[in-house]
Specification:
The complex is a heterodimer of chains A (about 400) and B (about 60). By secondary structure, chain A is of the alpha/beta class. Chain A contains 15 helices and 5 strands. Helices cover about 50% and strands about 10% of the residues of chain A. Classes of the chains: A alpha/beta (about 400), B mainly alpha (about 60). At the A-B interface, α3 and α4 of A face α1 of B. The structure holds zinc ion (2 copies). The site of one zinc ion has 8 residues of chain A, from loops.
Chain lengths: ~400, ~60
């Protein structure tokens, strides 16, 4: 038999449809007249497949709608589980607790029109990162108090234990008690991961170029951060903090009685030295950069990095010391009386005045008026310059 | 021997349509694909719900 529609040959007498074009045959015509047959065909897998495509589309639509609504309800918090898992994974891979907070984010093409907006932008960057921090109410309170009492825009102790946060708070509080007029220069004190795990315990960063670094200053104002970083390798791992500091550094490296937390006083010492420099320029900070001040800020950083002011301060301190005790002490001997760290030399073999000053302040923090006589000379010049 | 996906009757090698039910002869890969996609969509929906609930638990 031939197909009625396409003329294909060899249609068998039992065939309901043409094998070539699918048209019904004579037998197929009567076959189709019976509704039972049609129902049987429609129960077959191919027909079901079409219903399944519909089902699939419904599922996909539900998925998209749910995702959009969840995102609307939870915002970025919706992705918190991923960040959490990533944190757990990194902790596992590294074998110690790490921080989720990054202090080296950069932003570009941001319109910042005044100092307050700059401060708000810095705060926002940290707030957005801290949504999965372990929010111990007491730790949050410590952060807020430090922020408010010493006008530090952001203090982030994310995941630091309450005991440790308390210790850090005591150091910072005592430093501001000893030097009340050093406020408004720091933008943040923040836990973060160092590049290498033991790179530092705490670190002072006078100028971190944060917003619009590559933009032309005529088009965009910029933001710098002046930050103190706390290394998560130590501050998030109790077993490391509970060891004596001398387990990781040589005896007498820092001033006597130094602890992990007191090294923050050393870093604040660097900050104080930076504040002295700012005061020479009648500035409180270098946070908000405009076309009118960027050159001055660049100068300040260059002077700071070349220890211009700290060298002079150190020389004056040594002179006073020598005069007072009627002796001759070299720079190195003078620094050595404070600590080994104070006496470290730069590549050219010169004593690093910045470290001498930071260690003298560290000494003052730990021992008050019982500090070394050498530290005393440095601290009294600093107090004088700060108008205390 | 090949069979029709729809009615399971035997299909000859060069047939384009099933001689019994008239359905177009197709390989079952499309059929499998749709079912796999359905399973994935269901898993995705469950995952999304889990993500939503977990985000409340983690951020408290
Ligand atoms: Zn035909
Ligand atoms: Zn068939």
């Amino acid at each position: 038999m031939k197909c009625l529609s396409c003329g294909a040959e060899d249609i068998e007498k039992d065939d309901n449809f043409c094998y070539n074009c699918g048209h019904w045959t004579t037998k197929g015509y009567s076959f189709l007249k019976d509704e039972k047959n049609i129902n049987t065909i429609k129960k077959g897998a191919i027909f079901k497949q079409n219903t399944r495509i519909g089902f699939l589309l419904v599922l996909l639509s539900i998925g998209i709608i749910s995702f959009i609504s969840m995102l609307a309800i939870r915002g970025n918090n919706l992705f918190a589980p991923f960040t959490y898992l990533k944190k757990q994974f990194t902790n596992y891979v590294y074998g110690y607790n790490t921080s989720i907070i990054k202090t080296d984010n950069k932003y570009s093409n941001v319109e910042i029109s005044d100092y307050n907006e700059a401060i708000e932008f810095i705060k926002k960057d940290f707030q957005e990162q801290s949504y999965i921090c372990n929010k111990d109410a007491d730790v949050s309170l410590i952060e807020t108090n430090l922020q408010n009492n010493y006008s530090i825009p952001n203090v982030s102790f994310c995941d630091i234990t309450k005991i440790e946060a308390e210790k850090i708070k005591n150091v910072v509080t005592k430093m501001y008690d000893l030097f009340p007029n050093i406020k408004d220069g720091l933008t943040n004190i923040t836990i973060t991961n160092a590049n290498t795990k033991e790179e530092y315990i705490a670190r002072f960063q006078p100028m971190y170029q944060f917003v619009n670094i590559n933009e032309n200053i005529k088009d965009y104002n910029k933001i710098n951060k002046t930050q103190i970083l706390l290394n998560s390798y130590y501050f998030l791992n109790e077993e490391k903090l509970n060891r004596p500091l001398t387990d990781i550094i040589k005896d007498n490296w820092y001033v006597k009685d130094a602890t992990f937390e007191s090294t923050i006083a050393h870093e604040m010492g660097h900050y104080i030295s930076f504040v002295l420099l700012l005061k020479e320029y009648n500035l409180n900070n270098i946070t908000f950069v405009t076309k009118d001040n960027y050159k001055i800020f660049d100068n300040i950083i260059e002077e700071y990095e070349n220890n211009v002011l700290s060298n002079k301060l150190l020389d004056d301190s040594i002179n006073n010391y020598n005069k007072k005790y009627n002796i001759y002490t070299s720079k190195e001997e003078f620094a050595k009386t404070i600590s080994d760290y104070a006496a470290i030399k730069d590549k050219k073999g010169n004593i690093n005045a910045e470290e001498v000053i930071a260690e003298a302040i560290h000494d003052y923090f730990l021992h008050g008026n019982n500090m070394q006589k050498s530290s005393h000379e440095i601290v009294s010049i600093i107090k004088d310059k700060l108008g205390m | 021997m090949k069979t029709c996906l729809n009615c399971n009757s035997a299909v000859r090698d060069n047939d384009k349509y099933c001689r019994n039910c008239g359905c177009k002869i197709q390989s079952n890969s499309k059929y499998i694909l749709i079912n796999v996609l359905i399973i994935f969509s269901i898993i995705e929906l469950i995952g999304l719900l889990a993500l939503f609930l977990a985000s409340y638990m983690i951020t408290k």
